Predict the 3D structure of the following.
Amino acid sequence: MKTSFLFPNSFKKVGWVLLVPGTILGLLVLFQGYEIAFLNAKVFTLFKETQFLNSQNPGGHLVNNNLTNELASVIFMVGAILVGFSKEKQEDEYISKIRLESLVWATYLNYGFLLIGLLFVYDTQFLTFMALNMFTLLIFFIIRFHLVLSQNQFSVKAHAE
C-alpha cells in the first residue's frame, strides 16, 4: 500500500526528541506559569486588546510578549505530528487500518471532550480548555495508535511461542 502522505520512519525518532521536551515545557508553562526570560520580545499581532471595553482592535500591531508558551506549543505540535504520522518500520495495510481507526477514535473522543467543555466550562477557564483541546486530538491518536500496535505485537509474540 502506498502511503506517500506519511513521513519516513526516521522522522519518528526526531518527533520523540521534540515531543517529550515540548510536553514537559508545556506542562511547566501551564501549571507553574514558567517563562524563559530571554524569550521576552516585541512581536507582531493581528489583534490588540484595547482599554475601551476590552474590545479587539484589528490591524497589525507590535506587542510585548514572552514566547515560552508559543515555543512549547510549536515543539509539541511538530513532535506529535512526526510521531503520529511517520511510517512504521513495517508499514502494511493492517498498520494503515489501525492508523485510520485510531484517528477516527481520537477525533470522536476529542469532540466528546469539546462538547463537555462547551456545556460545562465558562469564562477564562474556557480559553484554557480550548487551548488544551488543540493538542488532545494528537495526544489521543498517538496513545491509541501505539497502544493498539503494542497489543498486537504482544499478541503475535504470544501466538508464536
User: Anything to note?
Assistant: The mean pLDDT is 89. Residues 5 and 85 are 8 Å apart (CA to CA).
